[in-house]
Amino acid sequence: MNSTRLENIAPAKSIVINQKVYEKRRNGQDVTVLSLGEAYFSIPDFGFNVLDHNVGYHYSDSQGMPELRDRIEEYYKYNNNISVSKDNVIISAGSKALTLNYMLGILNSNDEVLLHEPAWLSYEDQAKLCDATVTYIPYKEDISSFEKYFTDKTKLIVINNPNNPSGLIYKHEELRRLIELANINGIYVLVDEAYSDFISDSFKSAAEWINEFDNLCVINSMSKNFGMSGWRIGYAIANDKIIKSLTVLNQHTITCAPTILQMYFSKYMKEIYDICKPQLRELIKKRKKVESLLHKYDIPYLEGSATFYFFVDISKSKYNGDDLSVILMDEHSIATVPGSAYGKTTGKFLRVSIGTESFDKIDNALKIISEYLKNE
């Protein structure tokens, strides 16, 4: 393949590391996996028998089946107390596809995309696939100062709220003000809310503003909050014009999200969420316990209270994140993701995920990491 678009596209570091995890496990090795971007929930098999397979075997609406969009409308009503019309919802094969399609729909060559560090690693490379440039806003900057990074070339700001990997939740009114300022300056805003339920209190979604701001698109999925990442069902909420454009892009990329899986969610979405919700609460309790371990072992990290990630500061170590990640994997079978994947000034960090391992294994891994922070 010789497309110039691929020349500067790097492999996704988290996925590369997880491939090493799979290889080690196939060889019978025990790995402490602090690299996976998901949490494991216990979800029963509700069964496919009651679904009409004659429908499920075939194509369905490119915007997403109306029945599932109805369920998402209801979800926002009972979970966020927000009125969202199903006409403003589109379903796709995971939220990652919608992130890329949204960028394809608004970016032209050499347009600028602003990302606040630490930023989920695929945002940068998806922007590059659209021939756009990326500018990182340093992680120490508060959202109230983002406006000073606006330039004549800025076309898009991406906000991950809650943030992967820090767990930061942006202040609701400050986020609204940013969207308003961006709108005045002709800049689009993508708010990725994939971790919206991994919080201790109720979450205030930016979806409440989609009819107020023409520059706003909110993306979410079933992958994280519903613990079903392998099913690749994601959705976006936006105004009519944006939804129409995303539907056209769906038509030319995936045709439609998997019909039978949309039918399953349409039938059981409320039941699945009711089962996941207490497990989400338990995971937040686990986060607080792990936070206590970080204090116990004197491991600094970026401020945050949500998700199942910690962005660990290893600046006291003689290693950078890439080197220490390799050492931890090769010498201790501990999988982490280096901070260099999440920005330009985040090389002295590690992303630690607590979603799939026991508390005891996490404790042991953090103890080992803390020893490397003592090396001068």
TrEMBL record:
Cofactor(s) needed for function: pyridoxal 5'-phosphate
Keyword set includes Transferase: yes
SUPFAM superfamilies membership: PLP-dependent transferases
Keyword Transferase: yes
Aminotransferase class I/classII large domain ranges (all copies): 58-367
Gene Ontology molecular-function annotations: pyridoxal phosphate binding; transaminase activity
Enzyme Commission identifier(s): 2.6.1.-
Pfam families cross-referenced by the UniProt entry: Aminotran_1_2 (PF00155)
Keywords associated with the record: Aminotransferase, Pyridoxal phosphate, Transferase
Protein family (similarity comment): Belongs to the class-I pyridoxal-phosphate-dependent aminotransferase family.
Protein name stated in the entry: Aminotransferase
Organism: Aliivibrio fischeri SR5
